[in-house]
Amino acid sequence: MESTNRHQEVLKEIEKFNKDRHWGQHHSPANLAKSIVLEAAELLENFQWSDEDYDESSVQEELADVLIYSYQLAMRMGWDDDELVMKKIALNGKKYPVE
After folding, report:
1. Is the N end or the C end of the chain the one with fewer CB atoms within 10 Å?
2. d(Cα 90, Cα 85) in Å, to the nearest integer?
3. Cβ contacts of residue 93 below 8 Å, gap of 6+?
4. Mean pLDDT throughout 75-85?
């Protein structure tokens, strides 16, 4: 239950951050999807030359950007992000059974 409350707190903080800056006007589904890809590329850049030698702080920041944009896209579309993940895990379980 505590993690659900924390998750809702995070989503509300993302909404407040964007509302305070009037950024919602720029957050069309297409723009959010583009931003996810751009931030994912920045995340990957941390591992461009080495799988072991990377700046952990930078990886955390870029991963957070990917998550934030992903949450925003789900919110913009009116989708529950936890439900999306659970549905996908179930689909993957059927596609890739244990045996």
Report:
1. C
2. 9
3. none
4. 97
User: pLDDT tens-digit profile of 25-60?
Assistant: 999 999 999 999 999 999 999 999 999 999 999 999
**Percent of residues in the chain assigned helix, strand, coil, to nearest 5:** 75, 0, 25
Answer positive or negative: Cα dihedral of 28, 33, 38, 42.
Answer: positive
Nearest to 14 by CA among 40, 32, 41: 32
Report d(CA 34, CA 28) in Å as an integer.
Answer: 10
Q: What is the mean pLDDT of the chain?
A: 96
d(CA 99, CA 44): 32
CB 43 within 8 A of CB 59: yes
* Whether this model's pTM surpasses 0.85: yes
Q: Would you put residue 22 in left (φ > 0), alpha (ψ -120 to 50) or beta?
A: left
- Sign for the CA dihedral angle at 56, 59, 65, 68 comes to negative
